[in-house]
Amino acid sequence: MEKRLGEVVVKTYMGDITELVVDVIVNAANSDLWMGSGVAGAIKEKGGVEIEREALSMGPIRPGEAVMTTAGSLPSKYVMHCAGMPPGGKATYWKVLASVQAALNIASDHNLKTIAFPAIGAGVGGLGEEQSAKAIADGINHYARAPGSVKEITLVGQNKYVCDCFWKAVEEGKE
Predict the structure, then answer these.
(1) How far is residue 68's CA from residue 81's CA, in Å, rounded to a whole number?
(2) Where are the alpha helices (DSSP H) in 62-147?
(3) Which of 16, 78, 112, 118 is 20 to 30 A away from residue 45, measured at CA?
(4) 136-152 residue pLDDT tens
(5) Residue 91's domain spans which residues?
(6) Is 144:174 a contact under the CB 8 Å cutoff?
(7) What is the CATH number of the domain that holds 120?
């Protein structure tokens, strides 16, 4: 599915975020920036440990913040590490929303055009898929009101349910 929000195109993709050819993929990170399981583990496994080393050199950060690293051997150019939670803690709507806004601002500061977000804070983060999707969609809708360089945003779910949550949240948040 695809939807235009002003100058920004938002679409969903079901599959592996590490395989996308975009400027930047988002890692659902903890605020210490070590990469354990889930999306972070897949990024480290496929892109290389240098991604984690670079991220760790920039941290720790506060939940709700984001930092960008190179992407190692991934097809994307960069990895954006969005901290939706502290290590061992739980993600919240507000931390995920803030990290999405930070990621979009950093991407725009680097004149990047395409970004892909997973369900930040869902899974090990303890936030439900619907709440994660709502926080991400709300961040995107806010960004689309006065966008920077990012013009294409892909919301990535590993299954149909997560993609449906993303799409519902985008539709409900649209003005």
Answers:
(1) 6
(2) 93-109, 129-145
(3) 112
(4) 999 999 999 999 999 99
(5) 2-173
(6) no
(7) 3.40.220.10
User: Which segments of 59-101 are extended strands (E)?
Assistant: 66-70, 78-85
Record the tokens describing residue 27, joined without a space. 């890692």
In this structure, what token pair is assigned to residue 58?
Answer: 């920039």
Handedness of CA 105, 108, 110, 114 (dihedral sign): positive
Number of domains comprising the chain: 1
b/e 71-102 (16+ beta carbons within 10 angstroms → b): bbebebbbbbbbbbbeeeeebbbebbbbbbbb
Q: What is the C-alpha separation between 89 and 97, in angstroms, rounded?
A: 17
pTM of the model: 0.96
> Average pLDDT in the 23-28 region?
97
The one-letter amino acid code at 24 reads V
Can you read off the two tokens belonging to residue 12?
């969903």
